[in-house]
Design goal:
The complex is a heterotrimer of chains A (413), B (335) and C (335). Chain A is mainly alpha-helical. Chain A has helices at residues 2-8, 12-34, 56-61, 71-79, 82-95, 107-117, 128-145, 196-232, 234-249, 252-262, 270-280, 283-297, 300-307, 312-348, 361-370, 383-407; strands at 51-54, 65-66, 150-155, 162-168, 172-173, 182-185. Chain A has 16 helices and 6 strands. Classes of the chains: A mainly alpha (413), B mainly alpha (335), C alpha/beta (335).
């Protein structure tokens, strides 16, 4: 046993898969352990992008520093895209009666030139959307040209008068560390305003647990059927092979949908979904165990055991199971990964765990899709989930391939 | 020829039995569960504050409408008989459209999308696997592992990623549907172009995730075949390597066909979910809506249609396999 | 003396293992075969006889590599040809090969006639399919194989039939030298006899001009070939006519292989090789002295220090041992 594990760790594929899996597992265990807060607590008002958020009120009060830098051109450099510049030049040449050579290259001069030449007039050949775009752009640019100080005023509770409370100079800065109230969302927030990263770590954990449950159930069913079928042979074998073939062809996807839909919605938790998936995906294990047992059945050591009058149970546990253990482990690994995929697919159709208490990878995906985050360009709401599913499946498959090469040397190249 | 006939008759017979079992499961599974779906549907027709006798009457009406007042075996024969005629009853969410109408409208879309996608993915995967085994180098060390990774994406995940990149970020593809919402189906060039544009993303997302798995299988089969004795023998008879590689890949491909048959169910299931990402007018979207509306008869009919599609695809693959692998013929002659 | 068909001088080839170690499997082999003659090569498994068979064809691909020596076929030196020249003008037409595991030597999914077409087209693409069919049919009938075999796949043939088909395919282009590597070892006695009869027929009917027959059963060669060579650890240790080799073994290794009982009936398996204790030396690091010294019961300390050369004693007879003929007679007489 120790030797086998040692051998497995000599396979680069297995090691690579194991490392990815270990990282995912660590995230799923450590993050929830260190953040005791409810992972599904709503922390933001909507789907915000990743980054560090700090209180603006705090920033106003924070210590101010004067930095000597050309703020205006930095602003233009950061905000004015090449696309904007191109369309501005296009407008100037087409409608502003300006030669292209007259347009200044320096960002600030260019903006000033634009403000001086742009006229919000009715022009044929421009769509409304385009007109709107030029209008907005001009307003944004004029605001950026301003260098006056910003005055913060408070309302007098008695008179309703505005009283100057604080003044922020044009060139004042603050150190981010001086702003005390901050919140970092590594992966932003989802459409319910939950911290996507924390939620994702919990979801990976839940999905893995669900996969483990489904995998265990499928492996136990598959192992028992495979052993019976392979060892007993005869009519039992015929029946089990027939049933296995049936359920290989009838898609388990369909069975899962039918069962999930028929189950009372209130009962359909993560646990039950895991059981449903496990109970419908044992065919691979059965096939693999059966063929291994058949090749073992007439080996000398099994025959010796039979002649010695050992009981069926003893033969199975002592003379058969140790020899097929590696295949069972491999099938088990694949079962986990396919169960996680199955849960995700089921949840996408709205038949996943009917719960709002825990997140699974599939549910997170379902929430992200029903909020139409891809269309809104909110990649952080779905991309990390998809990549997590792919990484978990990839790492498990790699480990399986690595083990396969260790146990079946003819596959090595 | 006699061997072949027997082979095919056995296969077809076996698939008919499988179909029967699928019908039974489709019929019995929902009925085995606690709670009667028809009663749940009937609840929507019961106004609050209705008298008990009126409620009973509504329930009885609904039960009679769905045939629940008859014994189970009669219900089953009615169900099978109707299903074979293509009659799946009336949709609840699209009342009073017959389910067969709804399914007829979407099955074509699903087949037109998935059949080419699975075949193209299978072919590309086999080519990549063969090239990785024979030429090695960058194909074996970079491209194959990349597709192996992509192959672990769920179909809907790949669909979402492509949707975001090409439709939302780059804006070079439509975001969903089967054709432009401003068009009506016709045999015009504009319609065809729109059809094609809407086809790209769902198609490629299905192809991309199929390649990896097929390529790994093909690679190991090719390596196994490249070391076979007939390769050495053919070489020493002076046959060109290119020709021998042809033998090898043909033989390596044969188990890949059986492999495809084994994974068709999983593939089709995954792809059906991917359809919903693009709102593609196939079975996936129909089923998603049906689940959302708790349209029980429509879900049941959809799953049955999916099962039948998978069964037919499997049977087709097995028949094809019997035709191109002479070992099947030889095995038949022995018995 | 007939025309010399194959003339090999001091041929050395090596295997390069996965771990980049060299295995010197053929270490300085020289041999000659005249037209109409057959040569048997015998030795334990792992002595390099199969590698010699492959090396003689002058067509090398990893892991087998050519090191030095010359091979002349009917006066043409093939060791300085490019691999493609060898493939096109030597393999199949000048030298043909019958592999060890003929069971798997044929592509299972190809019809025999298609394979024959490929073999012939590899050397002359202009021959029409009809001509090939007619020619193959005629040749198969002469060799006692039914015409129907041509239209079958390898999987449809029985073991003995497969072996004979392989022999017929190998010799279809009437090569000058036929190299058969254990062509009969995996067969039952009846099939074995048929194979040997077929090889004789080939010689008599002039389909092959000379033959090398490789086996691990030295006594089997007695009724099959004219001359015999015994190979040990990559080198020839003794050569002579079949009769001399069997009844008057000189080298202690040959002597050991023959044991004491000699029942030289072709094809019988009554003769069990007397096991010689010990194992052959590691060919990654061949010993400095006589390679057989570790297993030789007559070895002296000098044997382990100095490698003996081949001693030619006239009449085509030679042996590789430091002892003289008289010394050998004496030690064998003592037993």
């Amino acid at each position: 046993m120790k030797n086998t594990i040692n051998q497995a760790f000599h396979s680069p594929k297995f090691v690579f898969g194991f490392v990815i899996f270990a990282i995912m597992l660590c995230l799923a265990i450590l993050v929830p352990a260190f953040s005791k807060a409810d992972p599904l607590a709503m922390q933001a008002a909507a789907c915000y992008r990743p980054g560090t958020y700090f209180s603006i009120a705090d920033a106003i009060e924070a210590k101010k520093y004067n930095l000597k830098m050309d703020i205006k051109s930095h602003r233009f450099d950061k905000t004015l895209t090449q696309e904007d510049k191109d369309s501005m030049v296009e407008w100037l040449v087409k409608f502003g009666n300006v030669e292209e050579s007259e347009i200044p290259a320096d960002a600030e001069e260019f903006v000033v030139f634009w403000i001086n030449n742009y006229k919000d007039i009715k022009i044929k050949g421009l769509t409304n959307a385009k007109k709107q775009y030029y209008r907005k752009l001009t307003a944004k640019l004029s605001a950026m040209l301003k260098t006056s100080d910003i005055v913060i005023a408070g309302e007098d509770p008695d008179t309703g008068e505005l009283i100057e409370e604080n003044k922020i100079e044009f060139n004042s800065f603050t150190n981010v560390n001086d702003v005390t109230v901050r919140k970092t969302f590594l992966l932003g927030t989802d459409n319910f305003g939950r911290d996507e990263f924390i939620e994702l770590c919990h979801a990976v954990g839940t999905s893995l647990k669900m996969g483990l449950l489904a995998g265990t159930i499928a492996t136990i069913i598959g192992l028992i059927l495979g052993l019976l079928s392979g060892y007993l042979g005869g009519i039992v074998d015929d029946i089990i092979v027939f049933i296995t073939n049936l359920f290989t062809v009838i898609p388990s996807f369909v069975l899962i949908i039918l069962i999930s839909f028929s189950v009372d919605q209130s009962a359909r938790g993560v646990l039950l979904v895991g059981i449903i998936i496990g109970a419908t995906s044992w065919t691979w294990t059965t096939r693999s165990v059966r063929s291994q047992v058949i090749s073992l059945r007439n080996r000398d050591h099994v025959n010796m055991s039979k002649l010695s009058g050992h009981s069926l149970i003893r033969i199975v546990f002592e003379d058969i199971l140790p020899y097929i253990a590696s295949y069972v482990v491999m099938a088990f690994i694949l079962q986990i990964s396919s169960a996680i995929l199955a849960e995700a697919q089921l949840s996408m159709l709205g038949l996943g765990p009917a719960t709002t208490k825990v997140a699974t990878l599939g549910l997170m995906m379902n929430w992200a899709m029903s909020a139409q985050t891809p269309l809104a360009g909110q990649w952080w709401a779905f991309l990390p989930v998809i990549v997590s599913i792919a990484l978990v499946a990839f790492s498990l498959n790699l480990m399986n391939t690595g083990l396969d090469q260790v146990f079946n040397p003819q596959l090595r190249d | 020829m006699k061997g072949y006939k027997k082979y095919y008759l056995t296969k077809i017979g076996w698939y008919l039995v499988t179909l029967l079992v699928a019908l039974v499961l489709n019929f019995i599974l929902p009925r085995m569960m606690p709670g009667n779906p028809v009663d749940a549907i009937a609840q929507s027709a019961i106004a609050p504050g209705m008298e008990q006798t009126a409620v009973e009457k509504v329930l009885a009406d609904y039960r009679a409408k769905f045939g629940l007042d008859k014994p189970l075996y009669v219900q089953f024969f009615n169900f099978v008989f109707n299903a074979l005629r293509g009659d799946f009853g009336i949709s609840l969410s699209n009342y009073p459209r017959p389910i067969s109408d709804l399914l007829k409208a979407c099955v074509g879309w699903t087949i037109a999308l998935q059949l080419p996608a699975i075949i193209v993915g299978w072919i590309l995967g086999n080519v990549l696997g063969a090239v990785a085994a024979y030429i090695k180098g960058v194909f074996d060390k970079v491209i194959l592992p990349l597709f192996m990774f992509l192959g672990n994406f769920p179909a809907f995940g790949m669909a979402t990623v492509l949707l975001y990149i090409f439709a939302v970020y780059l804006k070079i593809a439509p975001t969903g549907g089967g054709y432009g919402y401003d068009l009506l189906p016709s045999f015009s060039w504009t319609f065809f172009k729109s059809l094609l544009a809407h086809y790209q993303l769902p198609f490629w997302s299905m192809v991309l995730i199929t390649i990896g798995g097929q390529a790994i299988g093909m690679r190991s089969m090719s390596i196994y075949e490249l070391n076979a004795d007939y390769v050495k023998y053919s070489r020493f008879l002076g046959i060109k390597d290119r020709k021998i590689v042809g033998y090898v890949f043909r033989n390596a491909m044969l188990p890949q066909i059986t492999g495809l048959a084994m994974s068709l169910g999983t593939m089709i299931g995954g792809n059906i979910v991917a359809e919903t990402i693009f709102n593609y007018p196939g079975i996936g979207s129909t089923m998603l809506k049906a689940i959302g509306n708790r349209d029980y008869p429509l879900i049941s009919a959809s799953t049955l249609v999916i099962t039948i599609m998978v069964l037919i695809a499997n049977l087709a693959v097995e028949i094809l396999y019997g035709l191109i692998d002479p070992r099947i013929k030889a095995a038949q002659q022995d018995t | 003396m007939g025309k010399i068909m194959l003339d090999v001088k001091d041929l050395k080839t090596k295997y390069v293992t996965r771990f980049k170690e060299d295995v010197y499997a053929v270490d300085g082999v020289s041999l000659q075969i005249e037209e109409g003659k057959s040569l048997g090569i015998a030795g334990e498994s792992g002595c390099g006889k199969s590698t010699l068979a492959l090396s003689l064809m002058g067509y090398y691909f990893a892991p087998l590599h050519y090191m030095s020596g010359s091979i002349e076929v009917d006066g043409r030196n093939i060791s300085n040809m490019t691999p493609d020249q060898v493939r096109k003008s030597i393999l199949g037409t000048e030298i043909a090969y019958i592999p060890q595991a003929a069971m798997n030597a044929l592509n299972p999914t190809q019809k025999i006639i298609r394979f024959l077409e490929d073999v012939i087209h590899a050397h002359d693409p202009k021959v029409s399919k009809k001509d090939i069919y007619d020619m193959a049919k005629e040749r198969f009938e002469i060799l006692g194989l039914p015409e129907s075999v041509l239209q079958k796949h390898a999987v449809e043939l029985s073991g003995g039939m497969k072996q004979r088909t392989v022999i017929a395919i190998s010799t279809i282009l009437s090569p000058k030298v036929l190299i058969a590597d254990e062509p009969s070892s995996a067969l039952d006695v009846t099939s074995q006899k048929m194979v040997i009869k077929m090889m004789r027929d080939l010689m008599e009917k002039g389909f092959i001009k000379s033959m090398i027959f490789i086996t691990h059963e030295l006594p089997l060669l007695y009724n099959v070939t004219d001359d015999i060579m015994v190979m040990y650890a990559g080198q020839i240790v003794e050569k002579g006519t079949a009769k001399e080799m069997v009844f008057d073994s000189l080298h202690p290794y040959t002597y050991g292989l023959m044991g004491s009982i000699i029942v030289p009936e072709a094809g019988t398996r009554d003769v069990k090789l007397t096991a010689i204790p010990g194992t052959p030396p590691n060919l990654k690091r061949p010993p400095a002295g006589c390679r057989f010294a570790d297993r030789c019961k007559y070895a002296t300390p000098e044997c382990k220090a100095f490698a003996p050369a081949m001693k030619d004693i006239g009449g085509g007879r030679a042996y590789r041992c430091s002892m003289s003929l008289e010394q050998l007679k004496e030690v064998y007489g003592r037993d």
